[in-house]
Amino acid sequence: MKWSVVQMKMYQSVDYIKQDEKIALYKLHQQVNEPEHTHNFIELVYIWQGEGYHEVNGKSFAVQRGDFLFMNIGDRHSFAVQKDMQYMNILFDPEFLSEQLSSTDTTSHFLPLKLFQEFKDSLDNPSPHVTFRGKCMIELELLLETMYTEYCAKKSGYLAMLHGYATLLLARMFRMMQHNLLDSDLRTAYHMLPQLLSYIEQHYAGHITLNDLARESFYSPYYLSKMFKECLGFTFTEYVHDVRLREAKRMLLETEDSVESIGRSVGYEDKTQFFRLFKQSLGMTPQQLRKQM
Fold first, then answer.
1. How far apart are CA 64 and CA 74, in angstroms?
2. CATH numbers and ranges of domains, the chain
3. Which of 229, 271, 235, 266 is nearest to 248 (CA)?
4. How far apart are CA 101 and CA 115, in angstroms?
5. Which of 54-63, 105-114, 123-132, 200-209 is predicted least confidently?
6. What is the pLDDT, as a whole number, of residue 156?
7. Are strands 34-39 and 77-81 parallel, antiparallel or unpaired?
C-alpha cells in the first residue's frame, strides 16, 4: 500500500514581492480559514478588525485588533477566522534590512544586529505574537498607514523611507515584547479597548456619546472616560474628532465631494465647527489641503 504525503504549501517571495523592492504591503480581508503554510520570506501581520486564532509553529494565539504577529522564514502558520478579519501584511526579504539577515531562520537572529542590540539581553526567546493596546496601538496603526501610503505612492526615495519605517516598526515590536500590561490597573480596559474603538469607527458619523459605549460594553461612562484618558492619553471626544477628521482628510484627497458635504458626512452639521477643528488638527483649511494635491 502506498501512502500519499500531503506537502505543506510554501509561498515564494517572487510571487508576492518585487525583487527590485524586496518589500511588499497588502491590506487583506479574510473570511475563511487559511490552512497551514510556510514561506521563504519574512511576514508581519497586524490585525485591524475581526477575531480569530493564529497558529505559529504549533502554538495557537487568540487575535483581535491590536495584535501583531511575526513569522520568519520557514515558520509554519495558519489562520482560523471567527469574525471577518481585516489585516495588513508586511512582507520582505531578509536582506531588505541587512545583508546579515540573508540566512536568518529565527526571530532572535534580528537581535544581534547593531540596530536592535539593546533588546538582546531581555528577549532571549522572542514571541511571534505581540499585543498592542491603548495609545501604543493608535501610534502603531498610524505608522502602518504611513508605510502603506508610502509603498502605494512610490514617490522618489520611497524605499529609503520604507527601510526606516520597517526599522522603527521592528523596534516598537521588540519594545512591546518587553512591556507587561498585567501590571496595569486598567488591564481589563486594555483588552476591551479594540472593540470600543472599532464601535466608534463604525458610528462616528452619528451622534455618538459615552453613554452609547457604556451600553455597548456594560461599563459606566465614568469608567470609560477614565479608560480613554489613561490608556490613550486623550479623551473620548478627542478620539471621535480624530476619527472624523482623518476620514475627512481622506475624502478631500480621494473624492471631488464639496467641503461642506464632506463635513456633514463625517458628523459635523456645523460647518464652522468643522473648519475650526480641521485647521486646528492639520494646520490648514480643507481647501488648502486640496490645493496641495
1. 24
2. 9-179 (2.60.120.280), 187-291 (1.10.10.60)
3. 266
4. 12
5. 105-114
6. 95
7. antiparallel
- 24-33, 186-195, 262-271: least confident range: 186-195
**CB 59 within 8 Å of CB 125:** no
Closest CA relative to residue 73, chosen from 38, 124, 98, 113: 38
Residues constituting the chain: 293
Checking 143-152 for CB contacts under 8 A at 24+ apart, the result is 143/168, 143/169, 143/172, 144/46, 144/88, 144/90, 144/169, 147/25, 147/90, 148/25, 148/27, 148/88, 151/23, 151/24, 151/25, 152/25
Instruction: Please report the pLDDT score of residue 99 as a whole number.
Output: 60
User: Which neighbouring-strand residues pair with 68?
Assistant: 46, 130
CB 9 within 8 A of CB 39: no
pLDDT at 121 exceeding the cut of 70:
no
* Cβ-based neighbours of 167, under 8 Å, separated by 6 or more: 97, 115
| Nearest partner of 270 among 203, 207, 211, 210, judged by Cα | 207
Torsions phi, psi for 216 (to 5 deg)? -70, -35
